[in-house]
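Course assignment 3, question 2. Fill in each field.
Student: A.L.
Task: Predict the tertiary structure for the chain below.
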Amino acid sequence: MKRQCIKIPKKKGESARRVLLDFEILDNSLKIGSDEIFLYLPLSREPLSHELADLPAEAELSEFDFEAQEKKPTPGDLLGYNPAYELIGDIALLEDPDLDSQKASRIAEALLLTQPNIKTVVKPLTPVIGEFRVREFEVIAGEPRTETVHREYGCRYKVDLSRAYFTPRLSTERSRILSWVKEGDTVVDMFAGVGPYSILLAKSNRPSKVVAIDKNPDAVHYLKENISLNSAKNIDAIEGDAREEAKRFAGTADHVIMNLPHNAHEFLDSAVLLTKPGGVIHYYGITPEDDLYESSVELIRKAAEKAGRKIEILEKRVVRSYAPHQYNICIEARII
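Answer field:
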């Protein structure tokens, strides 16, 4: 099958392969191709610019007709169905909190037997709760821990799932926000967590400054570790209430990221205060299917009018399904 790939001289092939593995964009379902001079490394997606920059200078994007790898057993082969789980680093998070112990143990055993990249299997004991948005977990099998390092778009995020909220489900959304940011911009991430938005933006070298704020001291602890882990130079990591910190950075932001979908509306006055004329608020919410955007747009409009400003809606989109008849949405609003 013909797929996009990295074409690389054989003598540089191993270093290129390691880079692609680190970025998790080497397609292991296909055999690496070769001819007399070059290796052809199959890609699972198109690389971002900073990922291409980490490859050897001889690397180039190309296409090649690949052969499929021999199929290995899957959890579905052992169980007779495909279990629902979320992979965060080397931890598999079972998505059904109502699983009984026996069924959870069978799923965990199948995952550990067939997925060598999984070292721990956990299930949530609570929903996301409290002002710090955390959950309690039970380790079902594997190594007894909830801390891991998750890789995404060439960045590494160390996180303890029981101490700071993190989901890989927004990886595509984080990459989409990157496309909005221009060189020299200032970005304020009002609810930064362990840094998945802030660090990806900073590593792109587009923004001149990223201000990453979170109230959870554990999240900020990991945020600071991740800044160092990713050699991100232009981030200020701040432990504090986004409302109070907005007063310090008033009128400085070209982009304000409001990824707190259940409660972001409570912080709209502060987001408007942060945004310079012409800046953009990236507002996330959880909304019902019969009112995806209108009520949220009105909340943004009222917050702007309170500050004597106006809005221009640039984009509205569904990010993902959240629950039956409820959706995680994003609205991009320019504050004039």
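Instructor remarks: The chain has ten helices and 17 strands. The chain has a mean pLDDT of 95.
Grade: pending
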